[in-house]
Please model this.
Amino acid sequence: MKVLVTGGAGFIGSHLCHRLINNGHSVICVDNFITGCKENLTSLLESPRFSLYEEDICKPLDFDVEQIFNLASPASPVHYQKNPVATIQTNIIGSSNLLELAKKTKAIIFLASTSEVYGDPAQHPQNENYFGNVNPVGPRSCYDESKRCAEALFTAYKKQYKVDIRIGRIFNTYGPNMQIDDGRAISNFIVSALNNSILTVNGDGMQTRSFMYIDDLIDGIINLMKTDIQTPVNLGNPDEITIKELAEKILKLTKSKSRIIYKPMPQDDPLKRKPDTKLAEQILKWSPKINLEEGLKKTTEYFKLTLKSC
Model:
């Protein structure tokens, strides 16, 4: 099968490209390298079934493909708040361009949406029927609202043009190929702990997240594409942990001499985040298999090697 992966040099995209190649597909990878990294794809570059193009999806693409995976968007607050206009354009104009390509080629198209569509949720855990609690003009709105709009755009193309869509709402994911300066909790904590530098926790650290290892997410995405469900599906690990507990767990795992300091909570930072995954369990026959301890060990080993090569 011929497959297009946009944002394919990024954290999630690179793992997806590897899985698709391993499954025997031909993969066209598109990335503008704003947050993606070519080194994530090094082992694929010699494959005759893999092609890499430096392109921006805000410009129309023309490839003959059977499946499209749209992962082209900054996903870390550090990155998307640095260039909010580009983030909005990527998620709306870029999605529109890819939907036009899907309409033309009759390809199945997947949107990597996000748990951020739920904002700072008033419902816990969050299921797919919850409309969310999002500040449309806050510092996170460039990402939150453009992903919500992308979901609306995908749904409109399904209704008006019969485009075959899939929407996965991805909750906090971690693992190898994350950037050192990614700005997310797990990567920040592990890198700081390995360097014996300060771990910074927002607020009192009692806000919660639910972390999913990258291999589990890729399984979920692949399973979703095999179904015919065209409404959003949560892809996340329902095991919940406070950020303070996470920091302490990483300090213990790395045997670090670092200490934890606390700073004020950023505006609109969610206090709780936990997916209701019943729909994925029922329809995709999928649930995460890798627990946090195992995933953190794998991720720590990756960052050890990465820091040595810096």
In short: The chain has a mean pLDDT of 96. The chain has one domain: 2-174+212-238+271-289.
